[in-house]
Amino acid sequence: MATMMSSKLTGAVQPRMSAPKVRTASCAGTACLNSFGDEQLAIDMLADKLLFEAFRYSHVVKYACSEEVPEPVDLGGSGYSVAFDPLDGSSIVDTNFTVGTIVGIWPGDKLQGITGREQAAAVMGVFGPRTVLVVAFKDYPGCHEFLLQDDGKWLHVKDTTEIGEGKLFAPGNLRATFDNPNYERLINYYLGEKYTLRYTGGMVPDVFQIIVKEKGVFTNVTSPSTKAKLRILFEVAPLGLLVEKAGGASSADGKQISALDVPIVNYDQRTEICFGSVGEVKRFEEYLYGSAPRFEGVTV
């Protein structure tokens, strides 16, 4: 029953996906700030409106909140609550890079005092040369990719159940290397070992490629002068479920724990993060924190 209801919820998003709107929407800033103090772009607000309408239409969402409207809104349904980033990477729309939508779906009517591991499902929409929907369910194995066809139907094209080792890296927040020597050492390792750099500046495409290529690592690390930017509720926890269901791993909050195990106590809670293969996340923890006890016995 839970899978059926969460399938209905993820399905409700599909007819109103943002891809057609992204192609023609304004990328200009508005005079608005969200409650986190971030400037809101017209395209962010359009995507936000579309998603709220879709979740209201589903009739299975009690509360929803987003990076643009972080306080939960009562949508009148029952069964689930959702948190979403309506258009991750909106700042790179004007350069025509791939962007996306991130959605975390929790059972019940709570969006605080929870963890990512309690999610019923997570969804990622990817808007690039192809429009793709990626879904993972708590009680169903794998991470599942659907491709939007010209006739408006979705074709199931791939299941991912294993993320192996491979030299591909997407290093976020490289400015942190100036006063985080451990991060600098890790980046120098990637360069010295001739990893292939694949970094767009958009979290959705940079994490999605790990699932598609079934290898690689994404990092976004803090330092004394560069604070955490990525929000657990709207970005990190949902992507954590997708990556770990695909057979990968994560490390969050500077505490050497999975992104799914960080207690979410407020809507603006932020973290540094690593997503990737088990071996790459082990290497990340060894370089950043000196050891990786969670991954004892894993060879990198």
Would you kindly provide a written description of the structure presented here, covering whatever features stand out?
The chain is built from 7 helices and 17 strands. By secondary structure, the protein is an alpha+beta fold. It has 2 domains: 7-159, 2-Layer Sandwich (Fructose-1,6-Bisphosphatase, Chain A, domain 1), CATH 3.30.540; 164-295, D-Maltodextrin-Binding Protein, domain 2, CATH 3.40.190.80. Strands 4-3-5-6-7-8-9-10 form an 8-stranded mixed sheet, sandwiched between helices. Strands 12-11-13-17-15 form a 5-stranded mixed sheet, with helices on both faces. The radius of gyration is 18 Å and the shape is globular.
What is this structure, in a nutshell?
Belongs to the FBPase class 1 family. This protein is α+β, with helices and mostly antiparallel strands. Helix content is 28%, strand content 29%.
Task: Describe the structure using short key phrases.
Fructose-1,6-Bisphosphatase, Chain A, domain 1; 7 helices; D-Maltodextrin-Binding Protein, domain 2; alpha+beta; 300 residues; 2 domains
Which helices and strands appear, and what pairs or packs with what?
Layout: H1 2-13, H2 19-24, E1 29-33, E2 39-41, H3 42-58, E3 61-66, E4 73-74, E5 80-88, E6 99-107, E7 121-127, E8 131-137, E9 140-148, E10 154-160, E11 168-172, H4 181-192, E12 196-197, H5 203-213, E13 217-220, E14 230-231, H6 232-245, E15 249-252, E16 270-271, E17 273-276, H7 278-289
Parallel strand pairs: 3-5, 11-12, 11-13
Antiparallel strand pairs: 1-2, 3-4, 5-6, 6-7, 7-8, 8-9, 9-10, 13-17, 14-16, 15-17
Helix pairs in contact: 1-3, 4-7
